[in-house]
Design brief:
By secondary structure, this protein is α/β, with parallel strands linked by helices. It is built from 15 helices and 11 strands. Helix 4 packs across helix 15.
Length: 377
């Protein structure tokens, strides 16, 4: 079966040219501000729970503006339709930087003022306090997350995975895998497993040969499950349906901290990405949205978020405020993807490359790899 799938991928490539509201809140207009609820698209699960505690509830307390939260799983299709119809139901979107760049280029987002972010507590200008690349024309980075591989610790009692190539080695590390149904990260890991240097990865992925190698490696995985919602890989691991799964480092940490999950994170090959705030064009409460982004990207708020989920702050001053997990007391610095102990084998996602190629690469990915593994004849 594996050989047939790889041959099918190679044949295909040979013909190619190179939701809900926060607790205690309602949908009514705030009497204190005259402003309806600020509707935020976020990613659900442990991440959204952390945002409610560190960002949404404090913002409402500070301003009187209620926050309604709706579920977002990525993609631009719904936003494109809403903007075209001038019927946009959201005010703020929490999205990846690569998708924000593509959305901005397509005219789907409002430009953000250059002075939107507040200075650091010591007066350092925001542009010097944020990490490189944080300021986009239509977005502002608020944190750095990583897509990682996690595995069940009881599945490999003799030896543990230590490098990203182990994801593809089902002889030494047997069992089903779960990967997100997207080319992003999967293509990078596939090339890393061949020993391709990180600095050569995106150049090679821009060629037919590079895509051929990546798709063939992915097609060679036996019993591969695809996921689309961030909570799914955690549940697949906890239920024992897979032995290794890709996912977001914060979701895996939450399962380990709150559910005593028998899983561990493989930090080698982690793909770091910026998570940003953006305002959709024709947002009904654009001014309140800008007010929220300024509030949520302040150093104090960024540091507060790390008490609930281990995503790296985008401000240097916020890093100084990272302490312990609010519930377990674990030192959160050791669980950030940006911590030196975790970042040694990291890949910095080339978000500009994905913004340019997302449509073409997405089509090739869907054509090359089936939604579910074919059954044996």
């Amino acid at each position: 079966m594996r050989a047939r799938r790889i041959l099918a991928v190679m044949a295909l490539l040979s013909g190619l040219a190179a939701g809900g509201m926060a607790p205690g809140q309602t949908g009514q207009t705030s009497p204190a501000t005259g402003t309806g609820p600020l509707t935020v698209l976020s990613w659900g699960g442990a991440y959204e729970r952390a945002q409610r505690r560190a960002l949404f509830a404090p913002f409402t307390e500070a301003t009187g503006i209620p926050v309604a939260v709706e579920r977002y799983d990525g993609g631009l299709e719904a936003l494109r339709r809403a903007v075209a119809e001038r019927d946009v139901p959201w005010d703020v979107i929490d999205m990846t930087r690569s998708e924000a760049m593509a959305a901005c280029e397509a005219g789907l987002l409002e430009p953000l003022p250059a002075d939107l972010a507040a200075p650091a507590p010591d007066g350092t200008p925001a542009e010097r306090d944020f990490i490189d690349g944080a300021f986009g024309d239509c977005s502002l980075t608020h944190s750095v997350f990583a897509t990682v591989v996690a595995y069940r610790t009881d599945a490999f009692p003799g030896r543990r995975p230590t490098e990203i190539a182990d994801l593809f080695d089902q002889d030494r590390f047997p069992g089903p895998r779960a990967l997100q149904r997207t080319p992003s990260v999967n293509l990078e890991w596939a090339l890393l497993s061949y020993g391709v240097p990180r600095e050569e990865m995106y150049r090679l992925l821009s060629t037919r040969r590079g895509l051929s190698l990546a798709f063939a490696r992915l097609a060679g995985l036996e019993d591969l499950r695809w996921w689309e919602t961030g909570s799914t890989p955690v549940e697949l691991l906890l239920d024992g349906e897979v032995t290794m799964a890709s996912g977001y480092n914060g979701r895996f940490f939450d399962a380990m901290a709150h559910r005593d999950a028998p899983i561990a994170i493989l930090w080698d090959g982690q793909v770091q990405e910026h998570e940003v705030w953006a305002i959709p064009r024709h947002a009904p409460h654009a001014e309140a949205a800008r007010r929220f982004i300024r509030f949520a990207t302040a150093s104090k708020r960024q540091a507060a978020l790390t008490r609930y989920i281990p995503y790296g702050p985008s401000r240097h001053s916020a890093m100084q405020g990272v302490t312990t997990h609010a519930d377990s007391g674990v030192d959160m610095r050791l669980h950030l993807p940006t911590h030196p102990l975790n970042a040694g084998g990291a890949v910095i996602k080339d978000e500009a490359w994905y913004a340019r190629t997302r449509t073409r690469i997405g089509e090739l990915f869907r054509a090359a790899l089936p939604a579910e593994p074919p059954t044996e004849d």
